[in-house]
Amino acid sequence: MKRILWGGATAASQYEGGFYDGKGMDTQDCRRWIPRLSNDTIQTRLLTEADIRNAKNSRSDDCRFPFRMGSRGYEYWESDLHYITSLGLDVYRLSISWARLFPTGFEDQPNPEGVMYYDRIIRTLAHAGIKVFITINHYAMPIAIVDKYGGWRHRDVIDLYLKMAKFVVDRWQENVDYWLPVNEINSGYFSPYNGLGIIGTIDYSYDYRSIFNGLHYQMIASALITKYGRDIGARGKFVCMVSCFDYYALHPTPEDNMKLVHDEQINQWWCADVLATGEYGYYTEKFLADHGVVLDITDKDRGILRSNTCDIVSFSYYSSSICSVDEKREQVPGNLVPTLRNASLEATEWGWQIDPMGLRITAHKVYDRYRKPIMVAENGLGARDNVDSDGRIHDNYRISYLERHMEQAELAVREGVDIEAYFVWGIIDIVSAGSCEMEKRYGVVYVDADNEGRGTYKRLPKDSFYWYRDFIASHR
Ligand code: BG6
């Protein structure tokens, strides 16, 4: 039986900080933590031009902008890699900060300090025998591109992305095992600012035309960097990624089940269908027409998508969702999209419903649909941790969450699903992408900092660290 590679993952904007050494301002650097705003608020969806103006006028070390600090990984990378190696991870997933390499996105040459930063990390991982998974772009783009083009609204952004991505693939091709062109590509639909750098209007109106064309340009960019990597003989495999929500129908009625089919198509499969099969799903035409979207797609685009599909399909999974035509039901938060409450499930403090078997159901569905190896690119528990009187963090809740989800991943493999790797999200505590909080922690390594950037930023392994280390060792 194939062995799952056990991994851990972080993203540059949530982890690095280091808003200096030549790094440019990016979209995440403009986001403020606002107390008591939950995930499904406008904070995660759209920022306005006024928000961006205020961010630009603030001091670079203003603690109200938590992504400027991250977990201070830009300084702590060496000791963090020590934790990564001590854990015995098979594979580590990290992302490249676009604005650290190309501060505005328009430079011809990359920032040498930025290149050196990733040189060291990638070299250290390769030297330690840990496979390297690079997310070329995870949520953050240089703010100068937003100023000029309105984020991914414009086709020219494909070339700016490709300049950065080609540099990344050229430079690190010998040491990288997996390339992911864009994190959770379907997230641009739910969170246009994070996913596509699209700024909102003052009434936060939802601009389907920009969003679906932006997603299309991102998919063309993904296919073109895949082509480039293959043309130059880069050794890494190319991965696509979507966020999955594992929908259940609330009632066993045809209506709720029909809604389930539509929700899965638009929320979950849309982009994976394009990147894994090279074709837009049959359902897209009607959806686009219903929302008045004319897609800027050419015959050449269709050829690019068809000839450069991904090798591996990956997904993030945190909780399952319920759908129903009954709109009066109570809604609860989830990753990226709110859902209906499932009375049979417990939930995290942030209201995300915990459903380990949902991971196995999703793994089957993804594998069955695409028949390519799959990866669980993100899974984990966002929780508050406290340092106990004995100076340790007893996060049994996290161990229990991870253990139950990993068990389901292994069961899926036994049932024939080809799972290449599983990644614990935010393996070292990082700032939450949804709610901008440091105190919503996923890591097995604690970072001593709070939501307002106070703390020493020192690292402390949690009980889950020792548990994961032993789990990996016993699964070799
Ligand atoms: C995924 C993102 O959607 O969910 C991550 O790829 C994010 O960047 C993760 O951190 C968990 O969400 P949150 O909002 O708890 O950080």
From TrEMBL:
A molecular-function term among this protein's GO annotations: beta-glucosidase activity
Keywords attached to this entry: Glycosidase, Hydrolase
GO BP terms, alphabetized: carbohydrate catabolic process
Keyword Hydrolase in annotation: yes
Keyword Endoplasmic reticulum: no
Gene Ontology CC, one term: cytosol
Pfam families reported for this sequence: Glyco_hydro_1
Superkingdom to which the source organism belongs: Bacteria
Family as reported in the entry's similarity comment: Belongs to the glycosyl hydrolase 1 family.
UniProt name for this protein: Beta-glucosidase
